[in-house]
Amino acid sequence: MNALLKYETRAQKVGSLVSVGLDPDLEKIPSAFRSQKFPQFEFNKYIIDQTAEFAAAFKPNMASYEGAGAQGMLELEMTINYLEKAFPDVLTICDAKRADIGYSSELYARAILDVLGFDAITLHPYLGKDGVQPFLSRKDKVSIVLCRTSNPGAGEFQDVESNGKKMWQIVAEKVASGWNENGNCMLVVGATYPEEMKIIRSVVGDMTLLVPGIGTQGGSVQAVMQAGKNSKGMGLIINSTKAIIFSDSPAREAKKLRDEINLYR
Amino acid sequence: MNALLKYETRAQKVGSLVSVGLDPDLEKIPSAFRSQKFPQFEFNKYIIDQTAEFAAAFKPNMASYEGAGAQGMLELEMTINYLEKAFPDVLTICDAKRADIGYSSELYARAILDVLGFDAITLHPYLGKDGVQPFLSRKDKVSIVLCRTSNPGAGEFQDVESNGKKMWQIVAEKVASGWNENGNCMLVVGATYPEEMKIIRSVVGDMTLLVPGIGTQGGSVQAVMQAGKNSKGMGLIINSTKAIIFSDSPAREAKKLRDEINLYR
Question: Which residues, numbered 128 to 167 in chain A, qualify as contacts with chain B under a Cβ-Cβ cut-off of 8 Å?
Answer without folding.
Answer: 128-131, 146, 149-158, 160-162, 167
